[in-house]
Specification:
8 strands, four-stranded mixed sheet, 2,3-Dihydroxybiphenyl 1,2-Dioxygenase, domain 1
Length: 116
């Protein structure tokens, strides 16, 4: 048995892949319907729904990236944050010396953290 998160888009999978390739140059992509990506060992399925839905992605489901250091976190935040939104400002928090929570321009929520 294996559990793989699947993210559903409406015509934006290619846009997500282009953005994420810039953020994660080592990302592996297996094209198909759905496409499968692997980022830092985490597999995700990406599906472009041909049907319009009355819902989209929600920040209550986020991808958390443990970064090696602040420089790596800032680089990812710069790339993933282009055209997106900040849910928690980049800064030091009680639980991390460097953290931010952003939603990228295709609606995927990312929590970027340097673990203490």
């Amino acid at each position: 048995m294996q559990i793989t998160p699947q993210l559903m888009f409406e015509g934006r999978v290619d846009e997500a892949l282009a953005l994420w390739r810039r953020a994660f140059p080592d990302m592996q992509v297996t094209p198909g319907i759905p496409a499968t990506v692997e980022i830092a060992g985490q597999r995700l399925r990406l599906f472009d729904s041909p049907v319009h839905h009355d819902f989209t992605l929600t920040p209550s489901f986020s991808l958390t990236v443990a970064c090696a250091d602040e420089a790596e976190l800032r680089r990812l935040a710069d790339v993933l944050g282009e055209g997106g939104a900040v849910l928690m400002e980049l800064g030091a928090y009680d639980f991390s010396p460097c953290y931010t929570w952003i939603v990228d321009r295709v609606g995927v929520s990312w929590q970027l953290i340097v673990e203490p």
